[in-house]
Amino acid sequence: MVKNKNIGGRPNRSSTCKTKKAGSQIAGSRDLTPPDKPADDDIPASSLELQTTGQGQLGFPDRVYLLASVIFQNNHLEKPAAHRLVNYGKEKGLSLPEVKDVEMQRTAFELAFNTLKYQELLEDIMIDSCFYITQPMPDDQMSLVAVMLYDFQDRKFLPRERQGENEIVQEVRDVENYLLKFKTKLAASLARCRIKHDLLSIECILPESVKTKQERSSSLPLYAWVNTQRSSLDEVQSVLKSAGFSQVKSIGQLEGQTFCQDPHCGDMLAFPAQLKAQLYTTKLLSDHKLIIQDKSCSLGPNAICSVLPEDGDVLMVGCFSGLTVSHTASLIAEKHKAKDNHQPTIYVCVSDRTDAQREELQQAITAMGCKNVKLIPEVFQSLDGSDKRLQEVRVILLTPKCSVSAVSNPVEFILQENGDTELLQDLSQGSIAQSKLEALVAQQRKDIDQALKFPKVLAVVYSTCSSYQEENEKVVSRALEQAKTRSEQEGEPRQANFRLSPSPFSIPDHAEGLEETEHFFMLEPSEQSNGCFLAVLSREPEPEVKEAPHEVLLRANAKGILDRIGSNKPTRKVHRGNTNRTTKTTNARNSQPHLSASTQSKNQETRGSNSTSLCGHQEFTNRRQSIQVPLGRAQALRLHTSKNSAFSSVSSPKPENSVPKKSITPVLKTTTSTTSLHPATPPSTPLAPVVRPRRAPQEVLKPVVLKPVVLSLPPVHFPNFFPPQHSRSFNYSRWRPPGQSGPLSRSSSDLSKALVNSRAMF
Q1: Mean pLDDT per 10-residue interval, the chain, length 762 residues
Q2: Are 112 and 88 in contact (CB under 8 A)?
Q3: Which burial class, exposed, middle or buried, applies to 551 when counting CB atoms under 10 A from its CB (0-12, 13-18, 19+)?
Q4: Cα–Cα nearest to 309, from 393, 249, 379, 377
Q5: Are residues 85 and 142 in the same domain?
Q6: N or C terminus: fewer CB in 10 A for the chain?
Q7: Which residues pair with 373 in a beta bridge?
Q8: How far apart are CA 53 and CA 547, in angstroms?
Q9: Same domain, 508 and 387
């Protein structure tokens, strides 16, 4: 079969220009064949059968030459008239002949691309051999001559095997006959050019960058991702192992019939390049369970899957194939397979596709079993966040048209990913024209700026296959600056800005050619993979709003959930300077019921002193209860001092002809754990309570754990009232109700002595 003929770079032939094989000396030799022709045992058996039959080599069908000539005509290097050796006519932009066979189309592009590489050399051969001057060829057929001449010299100037009379194209046969008549002169001219430039092979005439890519393309592994809509990773690995494949740990170990898992994409497998035919025998490819695609195309879908929220859709914009769309849909469907009712939708902009390309894309998606994909015919620049279809879009995958300068096999990549074929001429010479690069960058800037304008989008994944900073870091950095400036000018909130997120791909220790600059992910081109660039731009999170305490209370009171706490209207009347204050907090009241009892007793004492005089027994009992406060409770002590709740003085009953007795007012100090008694001046008016001035703020004590302490006071004898056996002890853990004490009548001096003794015990 002709479709399997290997054209790109002739991988079965050495392209090195520094070593010579035995018997391949050029000096003094008229051997016109390339000196580095390998032995037959160096060529795989399947490839050898497809390349040679008997004395000649296989060529291509006539339609392949015709299609390749049109591609070359549209992309060849147009030289100035003063330096133009061969004229190819003035027609460009010709429509390509219709070719339904995809493999035949790829072969024609490969042939045209190789002809572009050696355009200078082929023109020298035509001029040196006088072929261009002596043959009556019209200028518009010189593109066909150049294409067929390249293939002719590559087949050692041997006639090709006839492909059948049904595919005859007369102009192709006419050019072939002319070339066969001049084959000796053409071969001699090629030999002279090689001697003149000291070329071990014609590959040595290529620019270094082109030659390096050509060498890498011959050793690139086959990458294939598992379609979870049709199968699973475990099932695919099981089928491969049953077919004789063995799994290795890294790509560097790929040799023979082996495969390994990619270190960055968990659903991707890598195989040696020559195992494509054996993979078809497993039916994994024909059943769409395993999809062959370049690794650089799979990083974007994997990045999307890592940043997509649970209920978000995806918008895909740029240059990609149906395989990339299917891979994205497959990964997202697998991630959300637990949700039966809702699956995220993949919206695809196809405004730059022809009707045939749209139909092809839809067929590929259907064949993969993907059902969550919808095509959008509108231009991306005309879409915005108000579109009803895009209200749930949270991530945008942007893969714009780029220079493909980091790809070693550009023809295959461009054809598979719907790339720009107008770049073939620049890629064949190893550099992109400045005008084309500027045009690409301008479009990339428009696309990324538009992507960052969607208000509900949380992340934008930007990916290219370029090695130019102008298309990678500079485009992303400029877009972030522009978005920030626009946000500041329009007064948008901070969360409208975007920032670079860390790369979603880890860097394994054994990975070669991988670099990570800040948040940019760059895969350098190597013999193991093509290069690519990827950046994830995430929207900044919404800043936390910190409300002041009074604002929180106002908002809570407006909802009626805090019972007017913190409002300006007090819920109860506060009496300044009154001695009947309650405890500060509800918790203090609940935890110390004896404190509230003391307060109630004290209130009764105050009311009694204002109306009538109390008896000595009741007066002593009330005073004793008012000073008995449990130790270790700093909060209760602060309650009496900070709220200016010192006990008011109480006067004892005053009979006739008796000396006025001084009332005793107990005072509690928070700086010590003792109570001190100070004699107070009798009030001038019995009804007017004594108000002690507010003290300066005391040092706040650290809360301590309340522990019951039992303090016993020495017995105090009252000869007139108590018998000697009635000695009393005060327990601070228990409080006697006032009703259990007998009537007492003591003098002020005796009471003062008892309280002084109790103070000494503290």
Answers
A1: 39 42 34 37 34 53 92 90 83 79 90 95 93 85 95 91 72 92 93 91 91 90 94 94 93 92 93 90 92 94 90 93 94 79 88 90 92 92 90 95 94 91 92 94 95 92 95 95 83 68 63 54 91 92 65 76 58 48 45 43 46 45 46 45 43 44 43 43 47 50 56 57 45 43 48 53 50
A2: no
A3: exposed
A4: 393
A5: yes
A6: N
A7: 346
A8: 85
A9: yes
**166 and 74 in one domain?**
yes
Residue 552 domain flag? no
Q: What is the value of pTM for the model shown? A: 0.65
Nearest to 189 by CA among 229, 149, 228, 162: 149
Three-state DSSP at 451 gives helix
pLDDT at residue 165, rounded to an integer: 57
Q: Note whether 360 and 246 are same-domain residues.
A: yes
- Total number of domains in the chain: 3
By residue range, what is the domain housing residue 25? Answer: 2-206
Axis crossing angle, helix 616-627 with helix 748-761, rounded to the nearest 10: 20
Q: Which among 180, 206, 232 is the end of a domain?
A: 206
Q: H or E stretch including 270?
A: strand 268-271
User: What CA–CA distance (Å, rounded) separates 108 from 61?
Assistant: 10
Verify that 200 and 314 share a domain, yes or no.
no
Question: Are residue 473 and residue 523 in the same domain, yes or no?
Answer: yes
Residue 180, both tokens: 């066969």
The catalytic site residues sit at 465
| Within a domain: 731 | yes
Tokens 């593109």 sit at which residue?
Answer: 143
Q: DSSP code of 202?
A: G
Length of the chain: 762
Neighbour-count burial for 400-423, b at 16+ CB within 10 Å, e otherwise:
bbbbbbbbbbbbbbbbbbbbebeb
In eight-state DSSP terms, residue 167 is G
- Residue 458 resides in a domain: yes
Of 479, 510, 539, the position where a domain reaches its end is 539
Q: Quick check: is 104 in a domain?
A: yes
Which residues pair with residue 534 across a beta bridge? 463, 521
